[in-house]
Specification:
The protein is mainly α. The chain has 13 helices and no strands. Helix 8 crosses helix 13 and helix 12 packs across helix 13. The protein is elongated. It starts with a helix and ends with a helix. 22% of the residues are buried. The C terminus is likely disordered.
């Protein structure tokens, strides 16, 4: 009888595992869009509830507005970024070729007057100008630029598929907004069936980690790239929209806007046409670059009490491992693992303290 029950349980487990595997295989084409939709819905669920209260409990109106916001804030900016990269790629390539062929001019006089490092920077600049930049670019920079160009073209070619995935994600997000409570209840029931109270705690921690990543990473990237684009446009820098799209991608990848703003500031001082605008761009660009040091930790702390280094490693490692979807998956996995591990450690510590307290109280009674 025991063997029969054992065989029946093993058969049930095998059948359920096979069905789950086949179900995941069938849903694999929708997996990326579904994960993106779930992450965005969880991160923006409080906004949906606020809109629903504003419309007198009408969920459908709140769902329509949130879906339109996803389209306006994600799909349209992505399309504009692709268009800007394609339209200006030839002009940027021609400008780079002109810079390589003409080389650098001698260092301006103000460079040597910079305290501490001015003389050294001016000497390196003049040496590079005297030797010419053609050989330098051809021998050292050229091969890397070629590889980077091929990679960028591959990414742009794949962004069309990402755009389609984003439209599918918007549709799935609308369905999740409309029927979110049923989905959340199912997830909680499964988690409770698997891990009891700890399973429910893991689901709560997952939601907090998702909100933390959405606030800390994406909001900071949007603010930095938007402010950087405004600063470039005010200073009269050409291709400000193109550079803003590049800054957005770099900020999401946790590199920051420095690779765009620093060369532009150097180029402005190099031109020397307007020292006032050059100083304005340097100061404003520096503030934009340093903004993430204050804004991102603040937003992450609002979402969940997680170490900043953990979020950064999760974003970068997740993106390198899983691609765009890893921006959410990586930090969420690390955050949930870290929080569960710390809860497990604290639980063991609390149990040890309780045991010592109980022993200390019971011993006098035993003596009496």
């Amino acid at each position: 009888m025991i063997k029969l029950d054992l065989m029946r349980n093993v058969l049930v487990v095998v059948v359920m595992a096979g069905l789950l595997f086949l179900s995941a295989w069938v849903l694999l084409p929708f997996m990326a869009a579904g994960v993106w939709a779930a992450m965005i819905v969880v991160a923006t669920w409080p906004l949906l509830m606020g809109l629903q209260r504003l419309f007198g409990g009408k969920r459908i109106f709140a769902t329509v507005i949130m879906t339109l916001a996803i389209v306006l804030l994600l799909i349209i900016p992505l399309w504009l970024a692709i268009t800007a990269v394609i339209e200006h790629s030839t002009e940027v390539s021609a400008w780079s070729s002109q810079l390589i062929s003409q080389g650098l001019p001698p260092a301006p006089d103000w460079v040597s007057s910079v305290p501490v490092v001015g003389d050294r920077v001016a000497g390196m600049w003049n040496d590079l100008s005297a030797d010419g930049t053609t050989n330098l670019f051809q021998e050292y920079v050229g091969p890397h630029l070629n590889e980077a160009g091929q990679w960028a073209l591959g990414q742009i070619g794949g962004l069309g598929g990402v755009l389609i995935s984003f439209f599918l994600m918007a549709v799935l997000a609308a369905l999740m907004y409309q029927h979110g409570e049923q989905g959340a209840d199912l997830v909680k029931r499964v988690a409770e069936r698997l891990g009891g109270a700890n399973g429910l705690a893991a689901v709560t921690l997952t939601g907090q980690a998702i909100r933390s990543v959405a606030l800390g990473v994406f909001v900071t990237a949007l603010v930095q790239s938007l402010l950087g684009t405004i600063v470039l446009a005010i200073a009269g820098i050409p291709y400000a929209g193109f550079m803003g799209a590049v800054m957005l991608m770099l900020c999401v990848a946790q590199i920051g806007p420095s690779p765009v703003l620093v060369p532009v500031v150097v180029w402005m001082f190099w031109q020397g046409d307007s020292m006032g605008w050059s100083i304005f761009l340097a100061v404003a660009g520096g503030l934009v670059i340093m903004l993430d040091n204050f804004l991102r930790p603040y937003l992450i702390r609002r979402g969940a009490d997680l170490p900043l280094l953990l979020i950064l490693l999760g974003v970068i490692g997740g993106m390198l491992t899983f691609g765009l979807i890893g921006i959410f998956v990586g930090p969420v996995v690390l955050a949930v693992t870290y929080t569960l591990m710390m809860a497990w450690v604290e639980q063991a510590k609390a149990a040890d303290v309780e045991q010592r307290t109980t022993s200390g109280i019971s011993s006098p009674n035993q003596e009496k």
